[in-house]
Amino acid sequence: MTDPNNLQFIRACALSELPPEGAIGVEVEGEPVAVVRAEGEVYALRDVCSHAEVPLSEGEVYDHTIECWLHGSCFDVRSGKPTGYPATEPVPVYPVKIEGDDVYVALTISNKES
């Protein structure tokens, strides 16, 4: 288990850049990251669908789910687990912290259970 006190958080974007319910794609140290606001909370996950390798940040967000725009694969933004086919593999999720208007992401993979 990763000690949250030892994580290196890197600024990903401004909180004000996020839509009220949706995602944006950013790059954090060369890694594609989807920063998602869902139900008032902010999450981060790898911005690549595990089924078709397209940006998840271009898809729709609803009920803590992000839907891939290409084939409709759905993922829980809290755990990265697929919730709808055709994807069967999860995507990595990353710890997030917010300071003022800044969203920070730690690229250490978090194994959250939903």
**Would you count the extended β strands for me?**
11
**H-E order:** EEEEEEEEEEE
Can you count the helices?
0
- Low confidence ranges: none
* Estimated structural class: mainly beta
Q: How are the strands ordered across the major sheet?
A: 2-3-4-9
Mean pLDDT: 92
Question: Can you characterise this structure?
Answer:
The protein is an all-beta fold and 114 residues long. Helix content is 0%, strand content 44%. The protein has no helices and eleven strands. The strands form three sheets. It has a four-stranded antiparallel sheet with strand order 2-3-4-9, with no helix packed on it. Strands 5-6-7-8 form a four-stranded antiparallel sheet, with no helix packed on it. It starts with 8 loop residues before the first strand and ends in an 8-residue tail after the last strand.
What's this, in brief?
The chain has no helices and eleven strands.
Task: List strands and helices in order, with pairings.
Layout: E1 9-14, E2 22-28, E3 31-38, E4 41-46, E5 60-62, E6 65-67, E7 74-76, E8 82-84, E9 93-94, E10 96-99, E11 102-106
Keywords:
single chain; 114 residues; mainly beta; four-stranded antiparallel sheet; 11 strands; globular
